Each structure stands twice: as C-alpha cells, then as structure tokens.
Amino acid sequence: MSTEMKDGEGRGRRPESDATHQSSRSISRRTVLFAGAASGAVVAGARAALAADAPGAAASGRATTHQPTLPPGRPGHDYLPVTVPNGAKLPWKVVDGVKVFHMVAEEVDHEIAPGLRVKCWGYNGRVHGPVIEAVEGDRVRIYATNRLAAPTTVHWHGILLPNGMDGVGGLTQKAIQPGETFKYEFTLRQSGTGMYHSHHDEMTQIALGLTGLFVIHPRRPRRRVDRDFAIMLHEWRIDPGARRPNPNEMTEFNMLTMNARAFPGTAPLVVRTGQRVRVRIGNLSPMDHHPIHLHGHQFHITETDGGEIAESAQWPETTVLVPTGSTRTIEFVAHEPGDWAMHCHMTHHVMNQMGHGTPNLIGVEPGKLDERVRKVIPGYMTMGQTGMADMGDMGMPVPANSIPMLGGQGKHDTITMGGMFTVLKTRDGISRYADPGWYENPTGTLAGAAATGDLQRDGIDVNRPPSVEDQVPE
Ligand SMILES: [Cu+2]
Predict the structure, then answer these.
(1) 171 CA from centroid of ligand 1 (Å)
(2) d(Cα 254, Cα 412) in Å, to the nearest integer?
(3) Neighbouring C-beta atoms of residue 233, cutoff 10 Å
(4) CA gap 53, 31 in Å, rounded
(5) How much distance in Å is there from the Cα of 196 to the middle of ligand 1?
(6) For 107-113, what is the mean pLDDT?
(7) How far is the CA of 349 from the centre of ligand 1 (A)?
C-alpha cells in the first residue's frame, strides 16, 4: 500500500501552490488513482484504500513532497498532547494561520539530580530545550534568538523541509551571531518524532545540551493512545565538583540522563492500568547508543524518525536500541499494575558520577590496611570489595556539587541504580497522573525471605552444596 502511494506521489506530484487548494484527502485519493492508472497493477489496492477511507500519504507517517498547509491543529481536538517527564513545551500562538514559536538559545543553570547543578547551554531556560509539538500540515514559523556568547544555528533533525531551512551552519545558512534572531518557516509534511539541535560547532553545543524533541502528530491518527510520553536521552562528562560539562570528552561519559535528569532525579511515567501507552525516545548523546529496557511488558517499535513502521513489519521487544541521532517510538498496553523499571541496559549508563574510575577491589581483604592508612588519612576506609552497591547508602562524603554513583530510596530498600533510569508507575482506576507513591504489592505477590516451612516442604537444604544437572554429550 505504501509503496503504491509512493509511486503515486512521484507521478502525481504537483506544485505546492496548486495543491494548497485541495484538501489532503482529495490529493491522496488522486495520487492513489494516478498510481493505479499508470501501473495498471494496483487498481484493486487503490479501491481497497478508498473503501477503507485510508488516510493516504499525508496521514500515513510517510514523507510527502506536496503537503498542503492545513488549519493549525488544535490540542485535545486534533491530538492528545505529549507528556514530558521533568520537561517543558515550547508555547505557540497562531498568527494568520501560522503557528509561531520563539526559542532563545542561552546559558542555563540546570539541576541534573538533587545535589548536582551544572551550567549548560539550552533553550528558553531549559535543558534540553522545550518540546516543540505540532500537527502534520501545520505551517510553523520559529524564531531563534541567540543569547549565547558563541554563534549557533538550529537544525530540524529528521524534519522534511526546504533546504534553506535546514539550519546547517555555513552549508545552508549563515550562523546566528550572538544577539541575532533568525526566522525559520516551513509546512510540516510528515508525522512522527523529530528533534532539533545546534548544527554549529556541534561537538561543543550538543555536549552542552542544545537539543530538543520535535513531535508532529498525524492529522488523522491510525492508532489512538491514552498516554503519550516524550523522553530525550543524553550523556555528559561532569567531573565531581565541576559545574561545567566537558564537551571535549569522547569516551568517558559519567552522567547519563533522561530529559536531562539522572536517577534519583527522574520523574516517573504514570499511567492507569489498561491504558495504551506510547513512549517516544530521542537520542542526541554525543557518542553512545542506548538500549532502553522496559520491565514487565512486551512492546512494539511503531516508529523511527523515518516515519511509521508498517504493522506487518513491527516485532515485539522488551528493549529498544535508540542509536544516537535517532528516535524510536514504542507502544504497549499497561496491563499490569506496579512499579516497573525502565532504563538503559548498558550497566555503566545506570550509574552516576562517583566511582567509574575506581580500581577493581572485588574479593580483596583489606586486613589491617585500613588501620594503617588511617594514621595518614583520617577516616580512610577501603570500599568496593563486594561491588558498588554500598556507595549508595553509606552516606560517604562526596565532593561538593557531585552525587554518589547510585542510589535512590525505594519502597523496600535502596535502589542501586542511577543515571538513565526511571519508573513506569501503573495504577488501577486513577484519573490524575501525579506521582502515586510506591506500589502496594497484593498479598502473596511479593518476593521475600523464604519461610522455614516452605523450605522443609520443598526439600530445600540451604547447607548442602548447590547442585547442577551436567550436560553430557549425546
Ligand atoms: Cu545507555
């Protein structure tokens, strides 16, 4: 179906000025019919599409070169607005049928997690920049003011637009000098999750936070969801005690963030049991890809930044790899109440600043070492013999303006995670989405210390050597 429509677009292409007189639906039908007539092979498909009142290219999540400008899409009417945990959205107003936005690139004092504040570069006082939200067919006019000390540009990543609006410094425009305001204007020809970021001295400016998400809702959605979340991934090098992320870092990133917050600073995703949930995940980390894993569910990857994935091509997953410079959208039904971890599965990406460079002391017996070192360094204590979990809750002092490697307080114990970690909180019957606190596990559904009676009944002797069933060659 989509292949046929692509053919049709090519053959049926018409100038935008002409197309603007037509509704997108009539154009879609015409292009489908052109394709059928020209190839003589897809008439049946075209008929089927018309019979099903198919949304056509303009509403399919696929690219079109002649999307007419449509009346500005309205939140709550044309789309369900996205929820941005810990984040913000860029406000807009309509002027003569155009959605007008104003973003300001500037230095931003930003809290990554309680105890760690850093000087980043962001937009409109936020890191990352506020989410731009619009609808396929909207015409958008976006003013970009530069209040940084350096030139910058704004590139609309994955967005289909005229070349001169692409925001690549030197190649498609002059850089926006400090104090200048540039104007970008185009009609949104697609739906899906795009991004925006500086395309001038990217290494410095992206590393300091000049990125954001650009969500474009379809004009006529094929699938409805009840909750629609947007999360931007990032990685930073912030030395303990430092207030400026180091943009020169190439490999040793030590702060990993979701919407520029690290656990325990990440807000949960709150949903009601049974709701259909979408999570859009963008990644503009300088160097790394992030496999984001959701506990307790199977989801489908429904979109990339290249558009919607045909249903027949989607496959179930529990982890979605989000390469840098990409977006991935997942959807699932929140069928099971509880507190479900959602996190990057690279183990060093769920750790915070302190401790990545520590020597390997697993299994080491310090013996009298501590005593002897304390004569030189009062209070010295060897750590790490059993791993890093102690770093979370021992209350060990860390340098000012830095946070321990891991640890947030959970319902049952310390959560030995940090960084790119958050929680999907699914609750029965809620109508508000404020943090509902920790999940109360129904009796009989919570793992806990085994009772002696259970052990005896099942013949488990914890003092016997553990057994395995050896595999012998057949
Ligand atoms: Cu990661």
Answers:
(1) 32
(2) 27
(3) 26
(4) 14
(5) 20
(6) 96
(7) 5
Encode pLDDT of 404-443 as tens digits: 777 778 999 989 889 999 999 999 999 999 999 999 999 9
| Residue 100 Cα to ligand 1 middle (Å) | 35
Angle between helices 2-11 and 24-39 (to 10 degrees): 90
Q: How far is the CA of 363 from the centre of ligand 1 (A)?
A: 28
Return the closest-CA partner of residue 123 out of 159, 95, 87, 96: 87
Band of pLDDT at residue 5, cut at 50, 70 and 90: very low
Give me ligand 1 centre to Cα 290, in Å: 4
Q: What is the dihedral of CA 48, 54, 56, 62, to 10 degrees?
A: -100
Is 45's pLDDT higher than 80?
no
How far apart are the CA of 431 and the centre of ligand 1, in A? 32
Cα 168 to ligand 1 centre (Å): 27
Structure tokens of 105? 């690139």
CA 37 – ligand 1 centroid, Å: 49
CA 406 – CA 257 distance, rounded (Å): 13
Cα 434 to averaged position of ligand 1 atoms, centre (Å): 27
pLDDT tens for residues 277-328?
A: 999 999 999 999 999 999 999 999 999 999 999 999 999 999 999 999 999 9
Say how many Å lie between the CA of residue 233 and the centre of ligand 1.
8
Residues 394 and 236 sit within 8 Å (Cβ to Cβ): no
Q: Please give the residue that has the higher pLDDT: either 402 or 233.
A: 233
Find the 422 Cα to ligand 1 centroid distance in Å: 13
Question: What confidence tier does 379 reach under pLDDT thresholds 50, 70, 90?
Answer: confident
The structure's pTM equals: 0.82
Task: Give the C-alpha separation, 257 to 373, whole Å.
Answer: 37
Q: Is the peptide bond before 412 cis (omega within 30 degrees of 0)?
A: no
453 Cα: distance to centroid of ligand 1 (angstroms)? 43
